[in-house]
Amino acid sequence: MRMLGRQRAGVALGLPSSLIPCAVPALRCPAVAFCEYCPAEPGTVQEQISSPRPSMLSGRCVRQHAGLARSGAPGSTRRSNQRRRPFAGQQKATRPPDTWAAMARSRAPPAGPSIRALPGAARGRGRPVGWGWPTAGAGRRGAAGSMAAAAAAGGLRPASFPRLLRAVGPWPRGGRAAAAAGWSRPEPGGEAQYCAELLRKRDYEGFLCSLLLPAESRTSAFALRAFNVELAQIKDSITQKTTGLMRMQFWRKAVEDIYCNNPPHQPVAIALWRAVKRHNLSKMWFTKIIDEREKNLDDRAYRNIQELETYAENTQSALLYLTLEMLGVKDVHADHAASHIGKAQGIVTCLRATPYHCTRRKVFLPMDICMLHGVSQEDFIRCKQEKNVRDVIYDIASQAHIHLEHARSFSKKVPVKAYPAFYHTVALDDYLYNIRKVDFNIFHPSLQKRNTLLPLYLYIRTWKKTY
User: Fold this and answer.
1) Would you identify the CATH topology of the domain 192-464?
2) Cα–Cα distance, 128 to 41 (Å, whole number)
3) Is the separation of the CB atoms in 219 and 153 below 8 Å?
4) How far is it, in rounded angstroms, from Cα 113 to Cα 118?
5) Where are the beta strands (DSSP E) in 99-225?
6) CB under 8 Å to 362, separation ≥6 — which residues?
7) Cα(first)–Cα(last) distance of the chain, in Å?
8) Three-state secondary structure call for residue 379
9) 426: which strand partners?
10) Taking the CB of residue 188, how many other CB atoms lie within 10 A of it?
């Protein structure tokens, strides 16, 4: 009788007959459960049944298992194995090959329990939000809210979770290498959300500045800055230089493939390929960024301030040159301003990262200025706050201020169309003002906090039409 009731419930919900044994038992389960063969988020079945449109139950699990029942091929559910992308250093559990063979022979899910109950503490943990990209540490509503906010702020069409399920369409089939890496190609447009979310977490100021760009260049700016984030975090995520060189080689090969219209199956690379096709970006600047990041993998301090400026010129300034190309600006004065602003940004970034590097017993500040004031690297590692230590920070911060003032000295010659590319100066001015307010104590806790008024300052700068 109980089994008959489950079948009647499945027929009432419009489920295919092949799905009734695995999907319907979840209806009676009092705990938060999900299907064994589909790593969907906890509570999906219960949430969709309680919605005013019960037909949405045939969204995720029904589409996957129905496709499996029709074809019996393991490729029809390969997306289910790839939905949760493992984090760095975490291995992804895959289904044994013999299970796939049994499923292919029977053309139905294998026998055994069809649901797994999760404890209450694990509910809503790492929930995919419809684009195929996980959000770690977010709750059931928080993950969807953060991604929807990033999409709405980025000029992307906001949509609720059920609407996103309908917009995703058929699940793509990844290759064997993609399955082993735990990555699957997102649907068209999903790379933009992934890049926007990556920027919001890793480069919040760049994310805000990218939102102020014209709509036709915004998604390309997300891809460009996400590419920079991917390269920048290589140095902090490796323990051996050989590993970093391998990752740099991957991105160098990815750039070559992008300009051959064959991008790798990686979300940032796909978004970058679309940006290159849309705006015809120069390959030279991408190569310079990768080469300079690769040379910077050595854990050694800059010998002088000129070496730090050269690094900033080949990374941050090159990023601004590409942004100007996206905006369609070809002007020598705009390039001159981008050069100085990029150098100032590189110097400020080095200052802001000093407390973090000191916790790892590393100091990258220019050695010539440290020797001029008689300061050793051990003084920074011990977080000393003597006058000579603050004098070193003052000299380096003054150099960044000089570059900003020089970039503004010929702002009247720079086309107004190029101003959105230079709005990052708002964040640089804010940091230089705050470090001067604490008497150049680089270890002051207030310098490590995010300024909640930064969006307002950016809006005022755009209203004044200046950088």
Assistant:
1) Farnesyl Diphosphate Synthase (1.10.600)
2) 7
3) no
4) 14
5) 115-117
6) 299
7) 73
8) helix
9) none
10) 10
pTM of the model: 0.62
pLDDT per residue as tens digits for the range 188-236 = 558 899 999 999 999 999 999 999 999 999 999 999 999 999 999 999 8
Q: Sign (positive/negative) of CA torsion 225, 236, 296, 91?
A: negative
Q: What is the number of other CB atoms lying within 10 angstroms of the CB of residue 38?
A: 21
Contact criterion met (CB below 8 Å) for 35 and 114: yes
The model's confidence at residue 357, banded by pLDDT at 50, 70 and 90, is: very high
Helix residue spans in 296-374 (DSSP H)? 305-312, 318-327, 332-352, 354-359, 367-372
> For 136-175, what is each residue's pLDDT tens digit?
333 333 444 444 444 444 444 433 333 333 333 333 333 3
The answer to whether the beta carbons of residues 173 and 181 sit under 8 Å apart is no
Write down the domain spans for the chain: 1-82+94-118, 192-464
Collapsing DSSP to helix, strand or coil, 220 comes out as: helix
Q: Is the pLDDT of residue 384 over 80?
A: yes
33 is written with which tokens?
Answer: 């459960």
Lookup result for tokens 């294998």? 110
